[in-house]
Specification:
The protein is built from 14 helices and 13 strands. The chain has 362 residues and is α/β, with parallel strands linked by helices. The strands form 2 sheets. Strands 3-2-1-4-5-6-7 form a 7-stranded parallel beta sheet, with helices on both faces.
Length: 362
């Protein structure tokens, strides 16, 4: 079986990390040959370097995906069509907001099975005329939608007037979060053992709400002076957040680690994980934080299904930052959120088993 994944670009994000995990898992599989096409160019970023060093099967079409003129889109579709025909897949698995382009590029290529994973809330990524375009693609081209949780699947069915959305959680290697050398790692980065470390992992964009994290940490720092804030990730708003940190005179207290391929090690240095996202499709990094045994303080906009340990505290996004700081430090009467399912359901081997069933049975 030949499976072709297609994605717009390869920055450091949850969707991209999940696809890399698929490629790793099937790298030496005798039954399934898997390849990834990125419509953009290889910009030598973290995930692109990881894919190259690990020998993962990936190619780049060097397209300017931001150029949405009619002439450019036609050229992009034609180029993508050639790439699809060259690989001759049995299955095309589409990711993110390129559904209509891939569907038109695949016309007449002989590929009968198509899947589209929605990596975020469909109401946030498909709106206005895009709803009708996506709905047409799902029905006319017989594309099977995949959501990251049950709530998201229900929203997808309702928005696009379909009734067959599949659920496939993003998966991680749970074993990699065990037995990390916390003290050794802290010494490496100059963090004392007795320092309270509040941490966050995620791209620097508005959805992740980094400005709110800084606001909360400022209060934490006043109440618990021996504290640090650890940011892991990169993105378009990183320089703005760094500037804000300097403005409120916390430059020495906030550590920017950049994009990393050793997230388990980064989490091992944390005492509490904070996640006040405006919205999330799943929030796989929250599963990672729980796998690392961290206390997690998260917004109520993050799907409830991600509560898999008794260390998750859910707060209304609109709650005062003083309240958030109190929960972070444990000076409150808030109780952990109810556990929804075993964390083992997010182990990559279990997720892959479900994915294979979808590929083979559809």
């Amino acid at each position: 079986m030949r499976v072709l994944h297609i994605i717009p670009d390869m920055p450091t994000g949850g969707a991209e990390m999940v696809i890399l995990s698929y490629l790793r898992f099937f790298k030496d599989d005798r039954d399934i040959q898997m390849h990834l096409i990125s419509l953009s160019s290889n910009k030598n970023r973290l995930y692109e370097r990881m894919a190259q060093s690990e020998g993962l099967s990936i190619s780049y079409l060097n397209q300017d995906i931001m150029d949405n003129t009619i002439v450019s889109r036609i050229k992009q579709i034609i180029q993508l069509r050639h790439a699809i025909k060259a690989f001759s897949p049995d299955i095309i698995h589409i990711h993110l907001s390129i559904l209509w382009m891939v569907c038109f590029a695949a016309i007449g290529t002989g590929t009968k099975k198509k899947f589209h994973t929605l990596h975020s809330n469909p109401e946030k990524t498909s709106y206005g005329k895009h709803v009708y375009v996506d709905r047409f693609c799902y029905v006319f081209f017989k594309v099977r939608t995949i959501a990251l949780n049950k709530e998201m699947a229900e929203k997808t069915n309702q928005l696009f007037h379909i009734n067959n959305t599949l659920v496939l959680r993003n998966g991680i290697n749970l074993d990699s979060y065990h037995n990390q050398p916390r003290s050794e790692l802290r010494r490496k980065y100059g963090i004392p053992d007795d320092c309270f470390v509040l941490g966050h992992v995620g791209r620097f964009n508005k959805v992740k709400n980094h400005r709110r994290i800084i606001e909360i940490f400022k209060i934490v720092k006043l109440r618990h002076p021996n504290s640090k804030l650890l940011f892991v990730g990169d993105g378009e708003e990183e320089s703005l957040i760094q500037q804000r940190v300097e403005e409120i005179q916390l430059k020495e207290e906030v550590i920017f680690m950049g994009a990393r391929n050793d997230v388990p090690s980064m989490m091992a240095m944390m005492d509490c994980f904070i996640f006040p996202s405006l919205y999330e499709g799943l929030g796989i990094v929250l599963i990672e934080a729980q796998a690392a045994g961290l206390k997690c303080v998260v917004s109520d906009t993050v799907p409830k299904e991600t509560t898999v340990t008794d260390k998750v505290y859910r707060l209304p996004l609109a709650s005062d930052s003083e309240i958030w700081a109190s929960v972070v430090l444990g000076n409150n009467d808030f109780k952990p959120a109810p556990i929804t399912q075993p964390i083992e359901q997010y182990d990559i081997s279990n997720v892959i088993a479900i994915l294979k069933e979808y590929y083979e049975c559809e």
